[in-house]
């Protein structure tokens, strides 16, 4: 039974009320912008075209809507937990309070796939946009240092070079790491500026390209299935939803900043739900414009928004699109790394990770050692991996966390029905099961290799738990625990 010992809600709330530790400086606007910063990035600048061309056609609008709906179910459950237990740690902390220590460890280890690996994936995409922008300005990064090891890079003269290392990806991770060490307030300020830039670029594309829409490009809205589950038809829309779900990863990172929110009981639900709703609307509108301007089969390119701008006669804003994409991807890296350090901070505080992980910088009030170590851990694979080698694993890890959080809300409702909940998930006995079901259903549409890698990753995590975490757990040493 020691595997399922739980931290009491009272103990978690006492931690939240403590004056020592992280600095509470974030308001509701900061949290909404933090969520938008985490969400808008790869999805709107890359996946819109890929899913339209390969899976759903113009019905990519529905794919984004379905993925957003699945996220809404989970977001409502996250909001209830964040208002009850306003401490760093996100799904890990919620699992510790409801399902027990073993499940908490599994969630915390699983979140590495969502936060750290997502930061790696996005850093690789950032590198591609930055190299393209620099080339337009006559600045050329050596081909050998411009992509993942083994990637064949075609030069302007037609010759080909095999890359050895992705230097720009490592540089952006290093810069974000230093910013996160400097402080949460500074990080949030930079994120706010970046969010305004990239949302302005997205709105500019919508406003200017709208007039170039040709309704004929939306016919047929749902292309007939071509014989495989992923290729169009209703099943293609669902498969597309599983793919574009990657675009929504990040809203839950808002919950990892609960211990740095000024009024978490009020502001956390606003940040989580507000950012998700805003981004869902933007995703659906942008995908409708893109497929209306360009025939969907022509959108399977690395930079679909640039293609849309060219087809709409807006080639003059291609540089702005690249800048917007870079801004979007930078803020995603920032928020994902922020979320990962806060999860590790909570796990270390509970004794499941070594004590040095939660050492706070005396001046900046940030977990600086963890942030530096994470920066190195993210930058190494960013220098050598490709996007496709990581994105499916990120999605399946996130969906697993969403399913567990949705189930945890129901468990806590049964165990502690009288608990004060500043935010209550509406229709919880409908919404929470739908959160579990929709997450599991989208996981089903991910490839078998993603499931295999998830199993290997969780097996490694269980070994670490039984070797270190179980013996060093503060609950195991007589700390607070629920019966």
| Helix/strand structural class | mainly alpha
Basic shape: globular
Count of alpha and pi helical runs: 17
The order of strands across the largest sheet is: 1-2
Number of domains: 1
Strand content: under 5%
Task: Say what the CATH topology is.
Answer: Amino acid/polyamine transporter I
| Span between termini | 10 Å
Topology as H/E string? HHHHHHHEEHHHHHHHHHH
Please provide the count of β strands. 2
Low-confidence stretches: none
Mean pLDDT: 80
Structure description:
This protein has 483 residues and is mostly helical. α3 packs antiparallel against α10 and α15 packs across α17. 65% of the residues lie in helices and 1% in strands. A hairpin with a 5-residue loop joins β1 and β2. It has a two-stranded antiparallel sheet. The longest helix has 32 residues.
SSE blueprint and pairings:
Layout: H1 9-17, H2 28-39, H3 42-56, H4 60-84, H5 91-98, H6 101-114, H7 116-136, E1 152-154, E2 160-162, H8 167-182, H9 184-209, H10 233-244, H11 264-293, H12 304-311, H13 318-349, H14 368-384, H15 391-415, H16 428-444, H17 448-472
Antiparallel strand pairs: 1-2
Helix pairs in contact: 2-9, 2-11, 2-13, 3-10, 3-11, 4-10, 4-11, 4-15, 4-16, 5-6, 5-15, 6-7, 6-13, 6-15, 6-17, 7-8, 7-13, 7-14, 8-13, 8-14, 9-11, 9-13, 13-14, 15-16, 15-17
């Amino acid at each position: 039974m020691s595997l399922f010992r739980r931290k009491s809600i009272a103990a978690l709330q006492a931690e939240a009320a403590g004056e020592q530790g992280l600095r509470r400086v974030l308001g509701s606007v900061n949290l909404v912008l933090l969520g938008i910063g985490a969400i808008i990035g790869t999805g709107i600048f890359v996946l819109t075209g890929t899913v339209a061309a390969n899976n759903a056609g113009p019905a990519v609008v529905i794919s984004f809507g379905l993925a957003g709906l699945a996220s809404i179910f989970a977001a409502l459950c996250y909001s209830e937990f964040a208002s009850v237990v306003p401490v760093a740690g996100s799904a890990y902390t919620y699992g510790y309070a409801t399902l027990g220590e073993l499940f908490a460890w599994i969630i915390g280890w699983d979140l590495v796939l969502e936060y750290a690996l997502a930061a790696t994936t996005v850093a690789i995409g950032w590198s591609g946009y930055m190299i393209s922008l620099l080339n337009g300005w006559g600045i050329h990064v050596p081909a050998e240092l411009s992509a993942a090891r083994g990637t064949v890079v075609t030069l302007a003269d037609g010759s080909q070079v095999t890359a050895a290392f992705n230097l720009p990806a490592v540089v952006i991770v290093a810069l974000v790491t230093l910013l996160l060490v400097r402080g949460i307030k500074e990080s949030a300020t930079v994120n706010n500026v970046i969010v305004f830039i990239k949302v302005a670029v997205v709105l500019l594309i919508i406003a200017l390209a709208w007039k170039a829409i040709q309704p004929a490009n939306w016919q047929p809205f749902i292309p007939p299935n071509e014989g495989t589950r992923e290729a169009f038809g209703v099943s293609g829309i669902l498969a597309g939803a599983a793919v574009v779900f990657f675009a929504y990863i990040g809203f839950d990172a808002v919950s990892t900043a609960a211990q740095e929110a000024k009024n978490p009981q009020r502001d956390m639900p606003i940040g989580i739900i507000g950012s998700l709703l805003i981004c869902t609307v933007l995703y659906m509108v942008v995908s409708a414009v893109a497929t209306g301007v360009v025939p969907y089969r022509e959108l399977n390119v690395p930079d679909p928004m640039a293609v849309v701008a060219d087809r709409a006669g807006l080639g003059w804003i291609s540089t702005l699109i690249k800048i917007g994409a870079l801004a979007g991807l930078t803020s995603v890296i920032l928020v994902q790394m922020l979320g990962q350090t806060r999860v590790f901070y909570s796990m270390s505080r509970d004794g499941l990770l070594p004590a040095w992980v939660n050492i706070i910088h005396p001046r900046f009030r940030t977990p600086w050692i963890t942030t530096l170590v994470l920066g190195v851990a993210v930058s190494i694979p960013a220098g050598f991996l490709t996007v496709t080698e990581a994105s499916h694993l990120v999605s399946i890890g996130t969906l697993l966390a969403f399913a567990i959080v949705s189930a945890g809300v129901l468990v806590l409702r049964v165990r502690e029905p009288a608990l004060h909940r500043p935010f209550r998930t509406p229709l919880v006995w409908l919404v929470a099961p739908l959160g579990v079901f929709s997450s599991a259903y989208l996981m089903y549409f991910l490839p078998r290799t993603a499931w295999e890698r998830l199993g290997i990753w969780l097996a490694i995590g269980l070994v670490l738990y039984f070797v270190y975490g179980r013996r060093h757990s503060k609950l195991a040493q007589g700390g607070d625990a629920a019966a």
